[in-house]
Design brief:
- The protein is mostly helical and about 210 residues long.
- The protein folds into two domains: about 80 residues, Orthogonal Bundle (Endonuclease Iii, domain 2); about 110 residues, Endonuclease III, domain 1 (Orthogonal Bundle).
- Helices cover about 60% and strands about 0% of the residues.
- The protein has twelve helices and no strands.
- The chain starts with a helix and ends in a 7-residue tail after the last helix.
Length: about 210
């Protein structure tokens, strides 16, 4: 999803769904930006490190880990060669170390060909990433949306998306993934932009 694609995407969403059109009006212009720093491996490494941690705590651990490699993110072989004790001293949990080693191993051996993921479709990428410990479907979808800029990603199991849909549509309970998928059908092929708007809508404080 490149900046030039945002205008037709928003126009489509406004026309396709009156409820989402009101959300778009409330949030304002779409400022979805891709995370372009580093390599695909570095982006996934960061995603694994940040799982189930506050942003501040995760950022601190990330910087301590980067310090082990001269202030940069490691390459797969470097990470695999780093003693667990050094990573633990940086604040990385044993479980996260196992996940990072599995990720690095997949990349180093070519089982996860990050150098050619752009040529694969969304579900092929999700399947490859889901084979890595600690990288589930949600993390794979975030990679598709915010790293690769794929335009039609709808994380149906994401709690934020579910909460935003409940609020926007006045539902009595959180929608299940199947209902999210059904409500999102009119948003195709721009579900990524719809997802962005739904997340941003949660930042708006409603009167009363």
């Amino acid at each position: 999803m490149k900046p030039r694609h945002l205008r037709p995407a928003v126009a489509h969403l406004r026309k396709a769904d009156p409820v989402l059109a009101r959300v778009i009006e409330a949030v304002g212009p779409c400022t979805l930006e891709l995370r372009t720093e580093g390599t695909h491996f570095h982006a996934l490494l960061r995603s694994v490190l940040f799982q189930q941690l506050s942003g501040k705590a995760a950022a601190t651990i990330h910087e301590r880990m980067r310090a082990l490699y001269g202030g940069r993110d490691p390459e797969p072989a470097e990470l695999l060669a780093t003693p667990d004790e050094a990573l633990r001293a940086a604040g990385v949990s044993r479980q996260k170390i196992a996940y990072l080693h599995d990720l690095a191993g997949h990349v180093a051996t070519g089982r996860l060909p990050l150098d050619r993921v752009e040529a694969l479709d969304d579900e092929e990428i999700v399947a490859l990433l889901a084979d890595v410990k600690g990288v589930g479907r949600w993390t794979a979808q975030m990679f598709l949306l915010f790293r690769l800029g794929r335009p039609d990603v709808l994380p149906c199991a994401d709690l934020g998306i579910q909460k935003a849909i409940q609020r926007a549509y006045g539902l009595p309970a959180l929608p299940k993934p199947a209902e999210v998928e059904a409500r999102g059908a009119p948003w195709r092929p721009y579900a990524s932009v719809a997802s962005w708007y739904l997340w941003r809508s949660l930042e708006i404080v409603t009167p009363g």
